[in-house]
Design goal:
Elements lengths: L13 E5 L7 H13 L4 E4 L14 H13 L3 E6 L15 H6 L3 E4 L4 H10 L4 E3 L12 H11 L6 E2 L9 E4 L2 E10 H5 L14 E7 L3 H13 L2 H4 L2 E8 L9 H8 L7 E5 L10 E3 L2 E5 L4 E4 L8
Parallel strand pairs: 1-2, 1-3, 3-4, 4-5, 8-9, 9-10, 10-11
Antiparallel strand pairs: 5-12, 6-14, 7-11, 8-13, 13-14
Helix pairs in contact: 7-9
Length: 310
């Protein structure tokens, strides 16, 4: 079944801001809101718990889920933008109405722990979502590459769209081949947390995207091994490895060494060093959209438009 494409984002549209996991400093939230308004001309609506803090969460699971559902119910809101990820996004998943979301599709963007929401909406609400910018990325020092990627994915119906790293940062094809399928995945740590739950990621005949941050290589090995034991690499058609920012060498082993040991021997088409999510440069990856991973010609191409004109 074809994925639902949310309506296109236009100049002057209203963006709904929500905090779905960890709290974020008010100054960072306010800077992002000001940037959306002053630099891009968007209107902004805030969820009730945007500034909330209950320990390491921004309100209860039910409160954060209610904020998200209210944004899907608000006819004026054209895009939903979480402030950050952090931890706790999986806690809202049981409280969401996926049928209602499917009937009221909107653009939703983010990364890090928002990964679990993006993939769950793609699977349970049939909605194309976007591993791309969070509110905290709307600031004066954000690279133009990130904005260009974000708006090409959400504000145009350009198709096909090739995902290319910024100049000087090489995408590396480690296993040659060609695979076509929906792209899924995101943050390794968050995806592992869904294993054995109703929200476990489905990688069957899909291109699996993985990235992480601030984890030593031995921890990445543990997480990738868990995904492997769960059959996620057996089922997938190909693998795209994003960067692992600030991921330390452990016992003389690097993130790249772990990829070589665990993923290269699988023989699936494999591209590494794609700039996305936690890295300085953030490609916009449409979760659920069909892509072509051609590691013979070193290309990753989104084959369809990811928003609709309606």
């Amino acid at each position: 079944m074809a994925k639902i494409k949310p309506p296109i984002l236009k100049f002057g549209d209203t963006i709904g801001i929500v905090t779905l996991g960890s709290p974020l400093e008010a100054s960072v939230i306010n800077e992002g809101i000001q940037t959306l308004r002053d630099n891009f001309g968007f209107q902004v609506v805030l969820g009730e718990n945007v500034y909330s803090q209950t320990g390491f969460l921004a309100g209860s699971d039910e409160q954060r889920a209610a904020d998200l559902m209210q944004m899907f119910a608000n006819e004026n809101v054209k895009m939903i933008l979480p402030t950050r990820g952090g931890v706790g996004v999986s806690g809202i998943l049981p409280f969401l109405d996926y049928s209602f979301i499917e009937e009221n599709p909107k653009i939703i963007s983010g990364y890090s722990d928002i990964t679990v929401l993006l993939n769950t909406l793609a699977q349970k609400a049939n909605l194309i979502t976007f591993q791309s910018l969070l509110l905290l990325n709307f600031r004066n020092n954000t690279p133009s590459y990130n904005y260009n990627q974000f708006f090409e994915a959400t504000s145009t119906i350009t198709s096909p769209r090739q995902i290319v790293n910024p100049s000087g940062i090489e995408q590396i094809s480690k296993v040659r081949g060609h695979a076509v399928g929906p792209i899924v995945g995101g943050n390794i740590t968050s995806l592992v947390d869904t294993l054995g739950t109703p929200y476990e990621i489905d990688t069957t005949d899909r291109i699996l995207l993985l990235e992480d941050t601030n984890e030593p290589a031995n921890t990445i090995y543990r997480y990738l091994s868990a995904l492997k034991l769960a059959g996620k690499f057996d089922d997938c058609a190909g693998v795209v490895m994003g960067q692992c920012t600030n991921c330390l060498v452990a016992y003389g082993t690097s993130y790249e060494d772990v990829i070589d040991e665990l993923i290269v021997p699988l023989g699936k088409p494999l591209m590494t060093n794609v700039t996305t999510a936690h890295g300085t440069y953030k490609a916009a990856i449409p979760i659920g959209a069909t892509v072509s991973l051609d590691t013979t010609n070193d290309t990753l191409t989104v084959l369809e438009s990811t928003v609709s004109l309606s």
